[in-house]
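Cross-posted from the bioinformatics board.
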Amino acid sequence: MENRGGEEDLPVIADYFEETYAAYSGDAAAYWETEQADGTDVLETARVAFIAEQSPLDAGAAEGGVPNIAGIKKIDQYTIEVTTAGYEAPAIYSILGIPISPLRYYGDPALYDYDDNQFGHPYGDLSIVESKTSHPVGAGPYKFLSYENRTVYYEANEHFYKGEPLTKYLQFKETLNSEVAPGVMTATVDAGEMNGNKSNYALVAGYNSGGEVTGDVITTISVDNLGYGYIGLNAESVSVGGEPFSDASKYLRKALATVLAVYRDVAVDTYYGDAANIINYPISNTSWAAPRTTDEGYKLAFSVGVDGADLYTSDMKSEDKYAAAIEAARQYLIAAGYTFDEGTGLFTAAPEGAKLEYEIIIGGAGIGDHPSFGVLTDASAALATLGVTLKINDPADTNVMWNELDAGTQELWCAAWQSTIDPDMYQIYHSSNIVGLGGSDSNHYHIALPELDQLIIDARKSDDQAYRKAVYKQALDLIVDAAVEIPVYQRQNARLFSTQRIDIPTLTPDITTYYGWGADIETIVMSANK
Amino acid sequence: MWKFIARRALLAVFIIVFGSLICYAVIRMLPSSYVERVARQRSTMPGSPGYQVILAQLTERYGMDRSILSGFGVWGANALRGQWGNSWFFDVPVTRKFADVIGYSIALNIITLFLEMGLCVPMGIAAARKQYGRTDYAVTVIALACVSLPVFFLATLLKYVFSIKLGWLDLYGVVGRYYQQLDAFGKLKDMAVHMIMPVATLTLANLGGLTRFTRTNMLEVLNADYIRTARAKGLPERVVISRHAFRNTLIPLITYMSYLLPGLFSGSMITETLFQIPGIGYISYQAMTGGDIPFAMFYATFLTVLTQVSLMTADILYAAVDPRVRVQ
């Protein structure tokens, strides 16, 4: 219950949820079965009941409900203005995530009169809309026809606002990732999307007579994936003396991170070839907030020693870099309080709260099928020369890794983030989202730095991109300094098109991570129909 | 006879109940469950209340907080009333999902069965009749080659030759790109064309076993005294083989075929996956690995029942085929 401006206490939506639940005497099974709901449906039921019953009783609303929402205004035929209560940068993507449909699809144009608060349906009666919620609206370039035989069939929408698509029929065929390229080559499908890795590109190049990824059989367009691969370190379980962010704890993690980071190049090149790049900050290269190599202060990840001096020079050979990294790790561990035996050249004891052996979990399906697997084997061998064991755990079932992450008991792990359009870091790095604290549980690093929290909040409250980028750079530096994450790779996705069957010039000319090939699907023409 | 059937039925019920319990226990003991997967997905969404909160809600919602025995009891009580529930993974009633996909597997397996029988039985008989002759060696080589080839290799080989190299057939799928625009006969033809490689894969993969089985049994029968007697009487070889020898190979064949009924419904997971046919083999694999208890339990129980029915039918057929069999 809440109090609205000194009025009597009124119910809130949560009360409706509790009331519905209580009607089943706390029997969850009966409740859920009867309500036929997953979480979303129950909330929807409670929401609808709340609005229907409480809205007319709200003193702030007009009689019988609200005539319109003051924060949503029509500006012209194609523009609306939405006013939010406060500013948060990611909010725009939530609002723009709502699908927009022409009036004829969701209502009755005869009942539309904006000035008279008529929005295409009788006031208080949403039956027109509700009758369509269980069917595809068909307001896009193609209308849904059927789903059968693992294929979705579409037909061109003659009413599409950008004009009727030039290709009459469209099919989406379920396909194994490994069969996309052969499928396009054999004319089973005309286009597809596959992971851009070395073997997949080699396969495509083999189909084209010129031996390139774009040729007479297949045209390939590669874009960076909205996300990146990383190696994580749990600040709580990889620490010294139970103080995750003490200098000693950071030195311990930096020792491990420095050795792991130096082996990234060879492992990623082996797995991806030209289809991935090494990244040095924990953010996807596709983001405007990602630091560029030309930016002031840009550094290779974990490339400085305990004394702050650079470890590598541009003319260094790989073997020299590996030796420098191992030496830097040795110095970091000594600074962290580890006992080093000069005679044997090995560490013999760890400080309180730390260990000589750590485990890293990797989802390589039990066979090492992971881009970072090579990093781990090389780093493990290198650390062994110092007497430190990095135990590689590659379970056949990746859920074993996620279960440990969800319990917060992991030490090191390999994974990848799927990024959002906005570079907001709140969900992953804000301390309120550490596993078990009641937030999003996405802060698997267990990083909790007040300064970082403040930077994250400051950045999401601003709409100044230059300011936000500068703040995010500071935040990224703090994350790297805490040594809880080693950024590894930025991989690509490849879109394949049949050069023979699709009129390639009719494709979207500038496909990017954010502007996909389907954005201008209505312009695509099949070669046979030219 | 009726006493035997009743005793056999009682045993079948016992096996079905405990078989289902084992299936239920195994699914519950998988390292990761459906609710964990869904909770993990939902916890990554903006505004999520967090993994642990969602997991607790879903665990209660799906009854995963019950013990294995208690959970099995609830499932069993519902199953006895014919309430198999909704598939968690596919989000439709399990019976509807089953009905949607079983047709593909049955069609695939029936065609394969007829082809198998049409090829293996004559080949086995021919090899037995010409033991250690050229025909026998040829059949043995073919049979051993088929037995030795793994299904995934055979399927990949066929796809490479007939789709990638020759371009005669689509690489995967049950229908072609113009399926929707075809008339009824055209649709049937289109599906038949897409079944060529899967059927060939399954037929070749099973060819060796049944051929050698027929050959061995035929050889045993051909060396029997009554065959020598039939030949001594001057009966034509065709009559000796078809009337006297072949009929006596039927008993072991019935044993072999008693597994065909559940086989028809169990699908062919590897073949269906490789050719991307939405049959029961592929769908049940998705359900099992996805921790979909309602679908997995329905399907496991269905197969257990079918197997028991098949075995009972075989037992009864023994008596019908061979009068010497006496059921006590």
